[in-house]
C-alpha cells in the first residue's frame, strides 16, 4: 500500500453525518480502517498501514487505539451505531412496519455498496480475528439486530401486511438472507459488480413470498 494514497473522500458515509460521535482524528482513523478493509481485506489492517493512511506515526496512532483489536472494535461499534441510526430513520420515514423493513433493507445495501468487505467482517465470524471479546461483542450486536428485525416482522404480521402462517423467526432468516447473500456475492467477486438489479429483484421476491 502506497503511503501517498489520497486522503479520504469528503463525500464518504462517515463525513456526511457525525454518526461516529468521535473527534476528527478518530473519525479519520476509522475511515482509514474501512478503506483498507474495502481495498485489501480484513487481514491487511495493521497499525502501520492505518497510521500511514492517516498520515501520522504509529506512536501517534497508539494514543487513540492500542492494538489492531481496538481498531476493529471501534469499527464494530461505529457500524452498529450506524445500523441503529438506519433503523431509527426507517421508522421515522415509514408509515407501516413493512415499509420500515423495506427502507432498512435498502439502507443496509447502501452501506454494502460503500464498503465491500465490511459486511462480511461483521456478519460472518469466519473472517473475524481470533479474539474472544471481539467475537462476543459482534455476536451481541447481531443478536440485538435480530431482535429489532423480528420485532418489526411481528408488527407487520399483526398489521396484516405479512402472512401469519410462517413464524417471525423463520421470516427473519429469509429477510436476513436478503442482506447477507448480496454481501457474500460481492465479497467473492473478483471484479466490482453492480448488484442494484439483484437487490431490487431480491426485495420483489421477498415481497411476493411473504404477502398474505
Spell the H/E element sequence: HHHHHHHHHH
- Looking at the structure, what is the overall shape? elongated
The assigned structural class equals: mainly alpha
Roughly what percent helix?
55-70%
Structure annotation, total helices: 10
Averaged pLDDT, please? 79
- Which fold name fills CATH's third level, the topology of the domain at 75-210? Tetracycline Repressor, domain 2
* Intertermini distance: 52 Å
Q: CATH superfamily assignment of the domain at 75-210?
A: Tetracycline Repressor, domain 2
Q: Main β-sheet, in a few words?
A: none
CATH class of the domain at 75-210: Mainly Alpha
The CATH level-2 architecture of the domain at 75-210 is identified as Orthogonal Bundle
Low-confidence stretches: 1-22
Query: Any idea what the radius of gyration is?
Result: 18 Å
- Count of DSSP strands: 0
What percent strand?
under 5%
Description:
By secondary structure, this protein is mainly alpha-helical. The protein is built from ten helices and no strands. It is elongated.
Question: Any key phrases for this structure?
Answer:
212 residues; mainly alpha; Tetracycline Repressor, domain 2; disordered N terminus
Topology, element by element:
Layout: H1 13-16, H2 24-40, H3 47-54, H4 58-61, H5 68-92, H6 97-114, H7 118-123, H8 132-158, H9 168-188, H10 196-210
Amino acid at each position: 500500500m502506497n503511503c501517498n494514497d489520497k486522503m479520504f473522500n469528503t463525500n464518504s458515509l462517515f463525513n456526511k453525518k457525525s454518526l461516529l460521535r468521535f473527534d476528527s482524528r478518530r473519525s479519520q482513523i476509522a475511515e482509514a480502517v474501512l478503506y483498507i478493509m474495502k481495498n485489501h481485506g480484513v487481514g491487511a489492517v495493521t497499525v502501520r498501514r492505518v497510521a500511514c493512511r492517516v498520515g501520522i506515526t504509529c506512536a501517534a496512532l497508539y494514543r487513540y487505539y492500542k492494538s489492531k483489536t481496538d481498531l476493529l472494535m471501534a469499527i464494530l461499534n461505529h457500524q452498529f451505531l450506524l445500523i441503529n441510526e438506519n433503523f431509527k430513520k426507517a421508522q421515522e420515514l415509514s408509515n407501516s412496519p413493512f415499509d420500515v423493513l423495506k427502507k432498512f433493507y435498502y439502507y443496509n445495501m447502501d452501506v454494502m455498496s460503500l464498503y465491500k468487505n465490511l459486511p462480511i467482517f461483521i456478519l460472518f465470524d469466519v473472517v473475524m480475528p481470533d479474539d474472544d471479546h471481539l467475537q462476543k461483542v459482534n455476536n451481541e450486536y447481531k443478536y440485538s439486530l435480530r431482535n429489532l428485525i423480528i420485532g418489526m416482522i411481528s408488527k407487520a404480521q399483526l398489521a396484516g401486511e405479512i402472512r401469519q402462517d410462517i413464524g417471525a423467526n423463520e421470516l427473519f432468516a429469509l429477510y436476513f438472507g436478503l442482506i447477507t447473500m448480496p454481501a457474500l456475492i460481492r465479497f467473492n467477486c473478483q471484479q466490482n459488480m453492480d448488484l442494484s438489479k439483484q437487490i431490487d429483484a431480491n426485495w420483489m421476491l421477498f415481497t411476493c413470498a411473504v404477502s398474505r
